[in-house]
Design brief:
Number of helices: 8
Strand order of the largest sheet: 2-3-1-4-5
Largest sheet: 5 strands, parallel
Radius of gyration: 16 Å
Number of strands: 5
Length: 200
């Protein structure tokens, strides 16, 4: 069963709006949903999040990647896996694919190396499907109200992240649904809901 769905994209792609719409759609149909965000959704994860997104903190690229991986491993063990075991649908604002794109591509650490670092902590629990909201970097960055440490990296960095997301889609097309996030919010939501209906 398709029960673990992640929402991905560069900064300003509109993940939160899409997730909220999907959550409401599923709950209205009597489906039990657990919604999480990465990093976060646990006490450990939220503390790691505060470090990762703090503009006043300078982090080595590998330290950043490992902190994301640590928060994710804890989240999967404590929240995601138990929810899946209960038969719930898990909706995740970002996932391991963000690390592959942001740290593997954006930070140039290498997608395969970042994948290997995360694999042990995930224990095989990867999103069954991924909604990739695709928008150009200038548009996405222009939508941000307040940029965090990673969101303030600029267009060139976001372009590298976007290119890596596209390469991930090419290598695993069955897992991804790519949505044009430059459309109106309503159009994006409807496109996302059509994919979710198809999966479930």
């Amino acid at each position: 069963m398709i029960s673990y769905i992640a929402f991905e994209g560069i900064e300003g792609a509109g993940k939160s709006t899409a997730i909220s719409a999907v959550e409401s759609y599923l709950v209205d149909r009597g489906i039990v949903v657990t919604t999480v965000r990465e990093p976060g959704a646990t006490k450990v994860g939220e503390q790691i999040r505060s470090i990762l997104l703090d503009q006043d903190i300078e982090l080595d690229a590998w330290a950043e990647a490992l902190l994301f991986a640590a928060a994710r491993a804890h989240l999967v063990r404590k929240v995601v896996q138990p929810a899946l075991d209960r038969g719930e649908v898990v909706l995740s604002d970002r996932s391991v694919f963000s690390s592959l794109a942001y740290q593997g591509g954006g930070r140039r650490l290498g997608v395969d190396r970042v994948r290997m670092v995360n694999a042990a902590g995930l224990g095989g629990i990867w999103p069954h499907r991924v909604v990739l909201l695709r928008v150009d970097a200038k548009t996405g960055l222009g939508r941000q109200h307040v940029a965090d440490r990673i969101g303030s990296e600029g267009v060139e960095f976001q372009d590298r992240v976007a290119e890596t997301f596209d390469s991930l889609v090419e290598s695993d097309p069955e897992r991804f649904a790519v949505i044009d996030a430059s459309q109106t919010s309503d159009a994006v939501v409807q496109a996302v809901l059509r994919e979710v209906q198809r999966w479930l």
